[in-house]
Amino acid sequence: MTTALRIMMSEKPLDHDFFTPWQAPENLATSISGKNVITVDISRDAFNSNLDAGMAQRAVQQLVYTATAAASSSGLINSGQQIQVVILVDGHTDYMAFGQVKLGQPMERNASLVAPLWIIDPQEDTTLPPGVVKFNGRSTDSSRPVSWQILQENSKGERTSLSTGQTTATGDPGQYGVFTFSTTLKAGRYELRVSQVDEAGATIETSTDTRLFNVG
Predict the structure, then answer these.
(1) Its pTM surpasses 0.90
(2) What is the total count of domains within the chain?
(3) Which residues, in sequence order, are bridge partners of residue 148?
(4) Is it the case that residue 75 has pLDDT exceeding 90?
(5) Of 58, 93, 113, at which residue does a domain stop?
(6) Do 6 and 109 lie in a common domain?
(7) Strands 37-42 and 84-89, bridge-based pairing
């Protein structure tokens, strides 16, 4: 958990569409109780950014999501169990994160802040072998179809649409689901664009996620 949180606060996201407002903390420690409560103790230098209330809330939730995901993936807790996170600053409660969010009380994941749709594979700027390329992602609403588009980039950096399609996410309607599809690609640089589709068949632009990758 400590390693995951330090990377979250210190490294630039691999996907250039994203950023983190956190600063690398001098001190960072984590622990977990037998009741699935994670305690994160960080130094106040991690909060050296000026954020509005909405962005501060998202930054704190970024920490909550990262800590709970790391605990789950490392086998410290069962992914089906409820997990809470207590954030201390220099060992104390009641610190105002970014001057906006009061810390110190147990917090849970806020599902309303999750992106509607996101690509899991391929990762940004990875290189895949030519042939059949498989794509994976997650959707917050399995009842909505997922529209996808592959664009090819030329030597000037210009992108033109190469292929399009539509798929569905597995899972109960209105719940989280996983989608997957594949297509055959030759050597080159590409962009994948995915969006949820509304009842009228139009793409929901606010749900769009993109990913740049190479084949060769």
Answers:
(1) no
(2) 2
(3) 165, 194
(4) no
(5) 113
(6) yes
(7) parallel
